[in-house]
Design a protein that fits this description.
Layout (H helix, E strand, L loop, with lengths): L2 E6 L6 E7 L3 E8 L2 E10 L37 E7 L3 E7 L2 E7 L6 E2 L10 E2 L1
Parallel strand pairs: 8-9
Antiparallel strand pairs: 1-2, 2-3, 3-4, 5-6, 6-7, 7-8
């Protein structure tokens, strides 16, 4: 059974991060006023493929292939210590932490955003 968790900024409630695990893969989406403005791959729940699957839209949402995956997290659950912090300076930044460890960063227009869980830049995540 998939899950969707919403983290709304207290200071600017028009911004939120949605983390969606659809039982295949988990992504985080930065929303502004009900529109996705950034996204980032977080982990594969299905087995990590050796070859990219982004050549066919039928495979959406895409799994990240092994050549890009540095670390594949255990799937999140209701007790996972996830925290989203916000920086509203020159650039709007949503930082996603797991147990006080920065795992991803999203900004408006970051498609994809940055991840500490990848080995190199790819179409689903940029190296943090």
């Amino acid at each position: 059974m998939g899950s969707l968790t919403k983290y709304v900024s207290n200071d600017r409630p028009e911004f939120a991060v949605f983390i969606e695990d659809d039982d295949k893969v988990c992504y985080a989406y930065l929303w502004k006023e009900k529109r996705i403005v950034g996204d980032i791959w977080l982990y594969n729940k299905a087995p990590t493929p050796s070859q990219p699957e982004w050549h066919s839209k039928e495979n959406l949402p895409f799994l990240n292939p092994s050549e890009f995956v540095k670390e594949n997290l255990e799937p999140f659950d209701a007790w996972s210590p996830i925290e989203v912090t916000w920086d509203f300076g020159e650039e709007i930044v949503a930082n996603i932490f797991l147990a006080s460890r920065l795992i991803a960063k999203l900004t408006v227009g970051s498609c994809p955003g940055w991840s500490s869980l990848v080995t190199k830049d790819g179409p689903l995540a940029l190296k943090l």
